[in-house]
Amino acid sequence: MTDPIADFITRIRNAVRANHRIVQIPASNLKKEMTKILKEKGYILDYKFEEDTKQGLIKIALKYHPVTKVPAIRNLTRISKPGLRKYAGVEAMPRVINGLGIAILSTSKGVMTDKEAKTEKVGGEVLCYVY
Question: For the chain, does the N or the C end have fewer beta carbons within 10 angstroms?
Fold first, then answer.
């Protein structure tokens, strides 16, 4: 697999479109941090890390509106790809839907959202947009 982050995003996107409640994804430290951010910002209900003989699994419980069944994640888009990396400095930090969505960045101080990176005054690689 050449791009495990794109696989992570695609599995979540496919599960949301198929109205699944839980999705299982092979674990890595970067994926674990991205999952924690999705939970903190309210895009998923919960997550659980499970260890196995290989690399482990991340089980993510997806979030839907209780009445209308509309998913909390409307769009999940990969920005920086292995063939073309996208970086953003503090001044040129991306705004997703004019501040309604989040951009997940990989910085020198760890994985964080665009707003956290602005307050920390650090730039980094733009991994994905979520709204």
Answer: N
pLDDT tens-digit readout, 4-34: 999 999 999 999 999 999 999 999 999 999 9
CA distances from 18 to 39, 69, 105 (A): 20, 12, 27
Cα 82 to chain centroid, rounded: 17
DSSP single-letter state for residue 51:
-
**List of residues 6+ apart from 131 with CB closer than 8 A:** 73, 74, 75, 96, 97, 100, 101, 102
- The set of residues, in sequence order, having a beta carbon less than 8 Å from that of 34 and lying 6+ positions away, is 5, 8, 104, 111, 127, 128
Q: How many CB atoms lie within 10 A of CB 106?
A: 19
86 in the Ramachandran plot: left (φ > 0), alpha (ψ -120 to 50) or beta? beta
| Rounded Cα gap, residues 103 and 96, in angstroms | 7
Its pTM stands at 0.94
